[in-house]
Amino acid sequence: MGVIKKMLRAGLLATVSGVSLLAVSAPGAYATGMPQLDFANPLVTGQVMWGAVIFFVFYMVLSKAMLPGITRVLEDRSKRISGDLEIARAAKQDADKAVAELQQARKDAMAEAQAHLDQVLAEEHKAAEQQMQEINARVTAEIADAEKRVAEEKTRALSALKEIAGDTTQALVQRLTGIVPDAQLVAQKVESASAHSTI
Question: Membrane spanning segments where (predicted)?
């Protein structure tokens, strides 16, 4: 309301100034062919006075009747805009807070998922190592068992070979010489030759 009143007062002041200027410059303007500015004529003076009175009445009607309603509308609009801006600020703060909470929840979820993944990988690595140790132990036991069986088979084969060698030697000596050799002597010689070849 203050701004509108100031504007009306400024307009009234400008009008009074303009009328004063016209009154001062009227003789020159009348001389150049403008009879409406001849203030020596009572009709022109009356028109100027009535114009000032009408403008003053118009100003009073506007300032008392019209301007308070316009001022109320402008104040209501300003309050509504301020309220809307406040609501918008609050909504923006809530949205920023929600975004921050969402980002924090995302970071927490990622950290938890990474920790869970690390734990699962550690457990799998531990289980794989344990399984590998079990496999190595089983393979080692199987190799030892196989080596034992090979050694037993080798011993059995060697003993069978000594018997075959003894029998073969006896048969060869008997065939070549026609004499039956002593079995105990043949067995000693085969054993001696076998021990010598093993060394």
Answer: 47-67
